[in-house]
Design brief:
The protein is of the alpha/beta class. It is built from five helices and five strands; from the N terminus they run βββαβαβααα. A five-stranded mixed β-sheet has the order 3-2-1-4-5, with helices on both faces. The radius of gyration is 18 Å and the shape is globular.
Length: 160
């Protein structure tokens, strides 16, 4: 296998930025969200995560309008993307996120979700869904990552 693959899923928000990570096995895992007071601090945190996880590509939720066009929030996300790439020059995949936060919220008790909103857990759950959608679009795992059953490791004595 070539270079190690590692993706960081990002759900951008003006106050909280949800994060999720996946390596070459393609199982997205939510990470602690970037919730510091200003965007520069949040970008510092994201840059640290990118280094620690050795991220090779970014997957950013893109808030398209219902008709698919770019609205005001999409332009804000594009600006964030540009600032992030300035710090960390990595490929960025934009993934339509129109349903990710709603889908993440459906898995939570909404009263609990409101209480936990400030922690960024819901944002990172949305980032996980964004990353999952991207990873699913890549197709099947490379064959070297698939486990093949070992016919010599079966214990048939229990079935006799």
């Amino acid at each position: 296998m070539g270079e190690r693959e590692s993706w960081l899923g990002i759900d951008y928000g003006s106050k909280r930025i949800g994060l999720a990570h996946a390596d070459e096995v393609r199982v997205p895992v939510p990470l602690a969200a970037a919730v510091d007071g200003n965007e520069d601090s949040r970008l510092d945190y994201i840059e640290k995560v990118i280094r620690e996880k050795r991220v090779s590509e970014l997957v950013l939720g893109y808030p398209a309008r219902p008709d698919g066009s770019a609205g005001e929030m999409a332009k804000v996300v594009e600006g964030f993307r540009d600032r992030l790439v300035e710090r960390c020059p990595l490929p960025v995949h934009l993934i339509d996120e129109r349903m990710s936060s709603q889908d993440a919220g459906q898995h939570w008790n909404m009263k609990k979700a409101r209480r936990k909103r400030k922690t960024g857990q819901l944002d990172s759950a949305a980032a996980t869904l964004i990353l999952r959608e991207f990873l699913d679009s890549l197709g099947p795992l490379p064959s070297e990552l698939l486990l093949e059953p070992d016919p010599h490791n079966c214990d048939d004595s229990r079935n006799a």
